[in-house]
Design goal:
- This protein is of the alpha/beta class.
- Helices cover about 50% and strands about 15% of the residues.
- Helix 2 packs across helix 5, helix 15 (about 400-420) packs parallel to helix 16 and helix 22 runs antiparallel to helix 23.
- It is elongated.
């Protein structure tokens, strides 16, 4: 208590010192003093109906010193000189009302105690309080208005030459548009002037929002653009479905003007819509996914204040998991990645843009047993999100031993380290390519799902490291002293399975964009090939939600919506650049690559789908029983083939572990 009081005294002392040397403070103080005197004089004028005799004037002047001594210190105590008045808000006006009433109450109390109000008019002090509030509040509002009209971020510049602003027309007249218009009005440095709104609701036409009229319907956009002389279009509707967004884009393209969009709420870590966040239209906007509803309390229950380890933290999913986890205030986020550049990028982003959460960057591979053991012993993570994996299908198909080392045994090491060091929750990020796999990558991810189920069933009583890793490490004594993995443990294992993530390292979208920039051709494997897609933001949010729902042994599946034709995606990406597919940019069909199939599935044979309380998450419960001893023998065989770089042997063994796997022996 005493320390709190001392700290407050220190803060106020420092504030007072800063105010004393600030010339703007003295200007504001003098203006306030003049306004207080004026308020008291106006109170007398109104009370005596302008006919002030000499006695009333002397009485008015005689009370001014007391009024100034009471009111100006009250203004300071209530923080009226601590605010930045260029940003005056409703809260500031309410504060002025409170201090006006408080200072008048103090003044009346002093007069009652001194002379019981003899010879004084009570109505004068009611009017005085009213005029004080009106004049002081008007002063603050005037400051804000002047800064908005003439000022900038660096001070009041009344004679600054106004910069040329783009004439902006907004699609939408809801909450997002309101926030954008308010920001344009409040910040004169923004290079935009709103000239109109359009909306799909005919009832809104003719109404105004912050002085900007709803000019007509969205379908009339082309005509309204020419009528207003608009130079740019902003789609200011945060949540729209796929058909709506495609319609908006088509209407914007007809105008031949540049157009941009506000990001969806999943991209906004702090949830704030701002014109500074607007960006170009991307394919994920055309997906039209609904906003994800998160159970904040359940997610916070297992993340807040905890140490969270994210493997593959520099990748598309891993980095987005880091961003989304920030809102739940974990105690420490351990960023684990083998890519130096990716790890550096995500570390710098979190450090400079979200510096309130402590992070630790670990450069290394999940196959490095000694590094894993050191990290787990030193930092004791409570939650592990395992996103690290080789995902590029053709590359992994030609180098299958890397899938064995990285995807399978790296995951097994991480799972065993989690058990030995008491991790509470382990979330495995899987893929739809694990369903009836036709490639090594998908088969390896299915094996990791089986490992997750094996450790969840508490039937595994192996050693801390499998045989393949012992053969590769020189420090044999470390392995001899390793503890066995206990068959019974408290770690909850769960998996999350979903389709492709837009813009990820293995996604076709970055390739298509490069090909379009070069003028084509855009290469599509097959005109009928389809894939499931979702944005990294949505996937990360649903992974966090799934982690809160698992009791152990579940594979959660994210609702991906309808599959999308890759051919259609390529055509829409070409149209987003303002060009036409086939006539301006060639689309060339090159045939399916090694290990690829025409369409992906999210459920494999023998799995039952069960609804969960979340509308976008289902859970798969497999009927397959895991025979841990057999799986262990098969993994030993897999390790031997991987060591010999035996591609056929690896595929044969994967076929034994995952019977539904259809290997391609031509690669």
């Amino acid at each position: 208590m005493f320390l709190t009081i001392v700290n407050k005294v220190r803060i106020h002392s420092k504030l007072l010192k800063n105010l004393v040397v600030n010339p703007k403070f003295w200007i504001i103080l003098c203006i306030d003093a003049v306004l207080v005197v004026l308020a008291h004089y106006l109170a007398y004028v109104i009370r005596f109906e302008v006919n002030l005799d000499s006695q009333a004037l002397r009485q008015c002047a005689g009370l001014l010193p007391l009024i100034l001594i009471v009111k100006l210190p009250s203004f300071y105590i209530f923080g009226l000189y601590r605010g930045m008045w260029r940003y005056t808000s409703l809260n500031d006006i309410v504060n002025i009302l409170v201090v006006s009433l408080f200072s008048s109450s103090v003044l009346i109390s002093l007069l009652l105690l001194s002379n019981r109000f003899e010879g004084l008019s009570r109505s004068v002090y009611i009017l005085d309080s009213l005029f004080t509030f009106i004049l002081i509040a008007s002063h603050r509002v005037a400051i804000r208005w002047i800064y908005q009209k003439f000022g900038g971020d660096h001070g009041f510049l009344p004679f600054e030459v106004p910069q040329e602003k783009k004439r902006l027309i907004l699609i939408g007249s809801g909450d997002a548009a309101e926030k954008v218009l308010r920001e344009i009005n409040e910040n004169s440095q923004l290079p935009y002037q709103a000239v109109g709104l359009v909306d799909d609701d005919p009832a809104k036409v003719g109404f105004q929002l912050h002085g900007v009229s709803v000019l007509g319907l969205v379908d009339d956009l082309n005509e309204l653009v020419h009528r207003t002389g608009a130079q740019e279009i902003l789609i200011a509707t945060v949540v729209v479905n796929r058909e709506q967004m495609r319609r908006y884009v088509a209407l914007c393209q007809k105008t031949l003007l540049p157009y941009k969009v506000l990001p969806n709420m999943g991209e906004l870590i702090n949830g704030r819509v701002s014109i500074k966040t607007i960006r170009e239209i991307s394919f994920k906007d055309l997906l039209g996914r609904d906003e994800v509803r998160l159970d904040q309390e359940k997610i916070g229950g297992y993340l807040t204040g905890k140490t969270v380890l994210i493997t593959g933290a520099g990748g598309s999913i891993g980095s987005e998991l880091c961003r989304q986890a920030l809102r739940f205030a974990p105690g420490l986020i351990i960023l684990f990645d083998s890519s130096e550049e990716n790890l550096y990028n995500v570390q710098m982003e979190l450090r400079h843009e979200h510096d309130t959460i402590k992070t630790l960057a670990i450069l290394g591979k999940v196959q490095d047993l000694r590094l894993l053991d050191s990290v787990f012993r030193q930092h004791r993570p409570s939650v592990v999100f395992h996103t690290a994996a080789y995902k590029h299908v053709p590359l992994v198909e030609r180098n299958p031993w890397q899938a064995v080392y990285n995807n399978i045994f790296g995951t097994q090491l991480l799972m065993e380290a989690s058990i030995l060091h008491g991790v509470e929750r382990f979330v495995l990020v899987s893929t739809d390519k694990a369903v009836r796999p036709t490639n090594v990558m998908g088969a390896s991810k299915r094996v990791t799902e089986l490992l997750m189920l094996a450790y969840s069933s508490h039937c595994w009583d192996g050693k801390f490291s499998p045989a393949w890793i012992r053969a590769q490490l020189e420090t044999e004594e470390v392995m001899q002293g390793a503890n066995p993995v206990p068959a019974s443990h408290a770690t909850r294992f769960m998996g999350v399975r979903f389709g492709n993530v837009l813009g990820s390292s293995g996604s076709v979208i970055p390739l298509f964009k490069r090909q379009i920039e070069k003028g084509g051709p855009v290469t599509v494997t097959h005109p009928e090939v389809t894939r499931y897609f979702m944005s990294a933001e949505e996937a990360a949010q649903l992974i966090l939600q799934s982690g809160s729902m698992g009791e152990g042994g579940e594979i959660f599946i994210l609702k991906m919506g309808d599959p999308i034709k890759i051919d259609q995606m390529a055509r829409e990406l070409i149209k987003l650049t303002g060009r036409e597919p086939d006539s301006e940019i060639e689309i060339r069909y090159v045939g399916l690559r090694a290990g690829e199939k025409l369409y992906e599935e999210l459920i494999t044979e023998g799995e039952g789908i069960v609804a969960t309380p979340h509308e976008k998450i289902m859970v798969l419960r497999g009927a397959q029983e895991i025979q841990c001893n057999l799986l262990n023998d098969q993994l030993e065989c897999l390790a031997m083939h991987a060591k010999d770089l035996d591609s056929k042997g690896i595929k044969d063994t994967l076929k034994n572990i995952v019977p539904e796997y259809l290997p391609d022996y031509t690669v």
